[in-house]
Amino acid sequence: MDSAGRHWHVADFRYVTRLDHVSGARRRLWSTTLPRFVPIHLSLITAITLWTGVTGCDSPTEALPIPALPGLDTVVVPPPVDTVAPPVDSMVPPPVDTVVVPPPVQSTRLLVTPTRMATWRRMVAERHPLAILADANCQGNRYGDTGLWCAWWYMATGDTVAGRKAVGIWITLTPPGAGDNERREQFIERAVLYDWFCSSGTGIATQTECATVRSALTQWKTACMSARSNDSDLTTGCYFGRVTFAFATGDLSDIAAAGGLDRTGFNRTTPRNSVGGYFDHLDGGALGESSHYDLGTALLGLMGVEVVKSATGVDHFPEFAVADLARFHVAATTGDLEQWVQYWDTQNPRDRTDRLYKRMTLWGAIQGVTKDPALHAMMADFTAKYPQNGDRSFADPWARALLFVDPYAPIGAPWYGTWLANGHGMIYSRQPTQTLWLAAYNRTYEDHEYNHLFNVQVYKNGEWALTNPLGYAGFASQVTASNGLSLAGFGSMYTGGATWATSGNGWIAIAGKTDGSAFPPGSWDRPAGFIRYAGRTSVAGTVGATTVVITRDTVDMDDPRTLPKFDRYYAAGMAYPHQAWINGADGKPWTIWHAPVRPTESGNVLTWTTARGQPVRVEVLSDQSIQMTTHDETVLWGLGSGSIFDSELGWQVRANTAAPVLWSVVQIGPPLPVTRSGNTVTVGGQAWTLTTAGVAGP
């Protein structure tokens, strides 16, 4: 841990902050090469309005004064009893460089610190491409416009015409009867704009308009009071929406009702503590539910944390590891900028540019807060590869990026190395042509979690050479959709997660375990637990030109069908048909591997070839005989299931043994000889020793 009590992570920071060390291509992020950034309709723009008098979106008035926020009353919240222990980092971390996040600064308008305002005005004055984009989108009808383009332009320039247009959109998009999704996504922004437009009666909105929106947001606040704590994104959006609205109106009583600003326990007894628990998973940067949902939840969390910083000048959320969030997004993006590691629920499998605008928005916000030069470099490279053109499928960010992004911060060199997302139990190795990813997921007890522990993916030479079917809920969330360990059809018992992670010279490793019952403590008449121990130790690295993944699956369990109360498991036809899972797995543990085509089986060896011609070999080893079954997923799950896209369906092989340990050795590339002696597996002359307690390797 560092002096602040934060845990370090495996990482190899090799970025450069001096601009003279950075290539010209990367220095051009948000640069003056306008055709890469400017929508086609920018040809209609004649000039830019500056607060100093240059013409633009409309003739401006003098920049409006920014009134002070009301002071925050001191709220004393009685601490609840802790029910959940804080996460423990079991790593033995090497020394690494850190990204130093600037200290918080109290401001007179929410999010509008003096430094940010100076940056915004400089962007306008220098005709920065993002400022031109904001002006164009304010004048035009950008897809998904919430009024923030014009609102940003108004704050940066004082342009009252832009301000009035923003107010009109703001009122239209703040209906009293908004649903959960709208409140989750928009509450913070709607309340920030209330502060900008209405604070102290000096804003651009009329008293009637302010009263109309205040009434609507008051209803949003009331609805948010009943937000479910196991819905991480709704909890985050609602909590910070309430807090932002309280600061914007000066009615601070709701901050106390939401649990205050400071954490009082590791539990979900208040919205504040619930948010803190979700932020704990940010240790290492992987926040929330899935690679798909994390994008939105992380942005909401960042916005809310920065609102509180700007209102108070104090960081009340030290558990929000924003610097980790910056480096995590670099580590999770393939070196060729074609893909990112996807896990858990996702509605856009293998997406690239289809959701790039969401990533560019989040990345811009993170970069502005952290000044992380490696993230800045990656943003530059994405912009060069997928130029902005006014289409949401390319590198255009949405307006929220402009609230934070700092295009004048240093740009570093591309980052490659090893990264641990300890809060979620995932470790990455990012190289120019290969990304290795191992998971021993921690249980999060929230919506959309997979409820299974282990997975492996390898991106090599421009394709997912080892991966699993991606999708949303249903079959996609079951253990059989992972390169994992099935426990009579279950992926985990009620408790489970990573136990340690480490790395060596060119390899990464992680381990996790689960045991006990599948049902939470206190469940009525629950069946006895059938898992005494189930765990995996996995390592991934390279030997010459061959990528190697080794897993050691250790299981001590009973067939749940032989134990009392089997009928207490959920029956077929229910949302979680436990009995069908158990029977489908024949009550046994199975190690599962996926292939895009039917693999060739030769004894205990599977082989196939990827779409780009890379050979894959999986050798399964045990001290006793091995049973293997192959399944066509178009038959197993069916075409058009709605859970997994048909293009994701392939083949899966399940392996079982009566021995307590089952080993798998995966090779991608030229096949190498494999031997095993006890806990030591040697591939092509390179030996790794894997136990439940650790890995010894090169």
Q: Averaging pLDDT over every residue, what do you get?
A: 85
Number of helices: 16
What is the overall shape?
A: globular
Please report the distance between the alpha carbons of the first and last residues.
26 Å
The percentage helix is 25-40%
Measured by DSSP, the beta-strand proportion falls in 15-25%
Biggest sheet, spatial arrangement of strands: 7-8-9-10-17-14-13-12
Could you give the count of β-strands? 21
Low-confidence stretches: 1-97
Based on CA atoms alone, the radius of gyration comes out at 26 Å
Largest sheet: 8 strands, antiparallel
Q: Look at the helices and sheets and give the structural class.
A: alpha+beta
Describe the protein:
It is a single chain. The protein is α+β, with helices and mostly antiparallel strands and 698 residues long. The chain has helices at residues 24-27, 114-125, 129-139, 148-157, 160-172, 180-198, 207-224, 232-249, 253-257, 271-280, 293-312, 322-331, 356-370, 373-385, 578-584, 633-636, and strands at residues 417-421, 426-430, 434-440, 454-460, 463-466, 485-487, 495-504, 507-516, 531-543, 546-557, 589-595, 600-602, 605-609, 615-621, 626-632, 651-657, 661-668, 674-677, 680-683, 686-690, 695-696. Strands 7-8-9-10-17-14-13-12 form an 8-stranded antiparallel sheet, with no helix packed on it. The protein has a 5-stranded antiparallel sheet with strand order 1-2-3-4-5, with helices on one face. A hairpin with a 2-residue loop joins strand 4 (454-460) and strand 5 (463-466). Helix 3 packs across helix 4, helix 6 packs antiparallel against helix 7 and helix 12 crosses helix 13 (356-370). The radius of gyration is 26 Å and the shape is globular.
